[in-house]
Amino acid sequence: MLGGAQPVAFLAITDVERAKAFYGDVLGLRLISDDPFALVFDLAGVSLRLQKLREFLPHSFTSLGWQVDDATAVIVALRARGVEFERYGFIEQDADGLWTAPGGTRVAWFKDPDGNLLSLTQHAAG
């Protein structure tokens, strides 16, 4: 029924200007609209609606992620723009903050200004 329908991604934010700068300037997403209810960014052809809330308690799990070809290069570029990557004591991560899953997929996590947990994933070759 919905297999062919265009998806929409949702996250919550509390500081509109801070979110606009992070998603637009830091992550490089194109702002589509800013209305009283949400900021909407183009997420590779999918709408990302950042819902404007007075208060918000972020999830402890990943809310949104990107599949990338070279996670290390993206991490270096994002760090140059001020993004800090998460470190976890319960998994082994390399100097860039990348965890390598048993199958070779590499993942790193970072947070937006409201604490939404975001990720980068580089799938194993082959």
Architecture overview:
By secondary structure, the protein is an alpha/beta fold. The chain has two domains: 45 residues, 2,3-Dihydroxybiphenyl 1,2-Dioxygenase, domain 1 (Roll), CATH 3.10.180; 61 residues, 2,3-Dihydroxybiphenyl 1,2-Dioxygenase, domain 1 (Roll). Helix content is 17%, strand content 35%. It has two helices and eight strands, in the order E-H-E-E-E-E-H-E-E-E. Strands 1-4-3-2 form a four-stranded mixed β-sheet, with helices on one face. The longest helix is centred in the first third of the chain and has 11 residues. The model has no long low-confidence stretch (mean pLDDT 96).
What is the gist of this entry?
It is built from two helices and eight strands; from the N terminus they run E-H-E-E-E-E-H-E-E-E. It is of the alpha/beta class. Strand 2 and strand 3 form a beta hairpin.
